[in-house]
Amino acid sequence: MSQGNMPYFNYLLTQLERHNPSVETSFGRHVHWGYWADPRTATTEDADYAQAAEQLTKELCALAHITENSRILDVGCGFGGTIASLNETHQSLDLTGLNIDGRQLARAQALVQPLHANAVRFCQADACDLPFPDEQFDTVLAVECIFHFPSREQFFKEAFRTLKPGGRLALSDFVPSRLFLPFTRGASSERFQKFNYFGHCNVSHTLGHYRKLAKATGFELEVAHNITPNILPTYRYLQRLLGAAQGKQAHEKNDGKSDALVALLTTLGKLRLLNYYLLAFRKP
Ligand SMILES: C[S@@+](CC[C@H](N)C(=O)[O-])C[C@H]1O[C@@H](n2cnc3c(N)ncnc32)[C@H](O)[C@@H]1O
């Protein structure tokens, strides 16, 4: 099976192999943006970033109303950070992490050992073709990964099919404003390939599209929190991390492409043109 074409994971896996202490701390468990309840308190320290990344997971899981004895599927599970967090804070959960990339799953498997009578397993598959029977899960989570999937609609259909009635899908995503939408459509064009650090990314789904998608697939949209102000310090941290990497290893410098991308994301976030949302949907 394909490992997905995500150059940033090649970078992270190489740095983790080399035991880069910054990358191990900030992206060794969660591979997503941080959440600061008060963004003014953010520093650019690795440990502060790691704590903020953990907090983003907690904010998202809170929307899913997870209770004891639940069956949880975390799609696009990365290095298993969300599964690890639930495993540490809950008991008697049945936890499945799913990812398209076997290299990430190998790290997840090594990092997460079941605690508190939880069951933990990992599975290699495509989020748009879930290898599970109907009505298996109480919760489906998708933390900062849906923009990579071949189709949001197909993933929603699969999440709906595999959720029990009353179950929830909770996810986080980059959501453009309507004003910015026409520009996101060009993001996969040739012109932007030089920024192709993140691989296939579709960030052309507005909140209006999510409302329509929920209706078309049978979900009720329960929560749509725009948390853009709370994630913005992520970009300052990334600038610091990438700057340090380039300073140390000039031969690995990528001509400032990643710096330019981070600067662009900062501006788009500050102008609320590309927002970060936590979304929760309920299967009636
Ligand atoms: C930004 S990372 C987020 C990882 C994890 N959810 C976290 O928060 O730490 C995006 C993840 O989506 C996964 N992914 C991309 N395309 C996928 C697909 N079609 N099916 C399953 N996982 C996919 C990637 O391998 C990666 O682990």
TrEMBL record:
Q: Which residues form the Methyltransferase type domain?
A: 73-170
The family database entries (Gene3D superfamilies) matched by this protein are listed as: Vaccinia Virus protein VP39 (3.40.50.150)
Alphabetized, the UniProt keywords read: Transferase
Annotated source species? Halothiobacillus diazotrophicus
Which PANTHER family does the protein's record reference? Answer: GERANYL DIPHOSPHATE 2-C-METHYLTRANSFERASE, ZGC:194242
What is this protein's name?
Answer: Methyltransferase type 11 domain-containing protein
User: From the UniProt record, which GO molecular function terms apply?
Assistant: S-adenosylmethionine-dependent methyltransferase activity
Task: Report the superkingdom from the record.
Answer: Bacteria
User: Pfam families given for it?
Assistant: Methyltransf_11 (PF08241)
Q: Which InterPro entries match?
A: Erg6_SMT_methyltransf, Methyltransf_11, SAM-dependent_MTases_sf
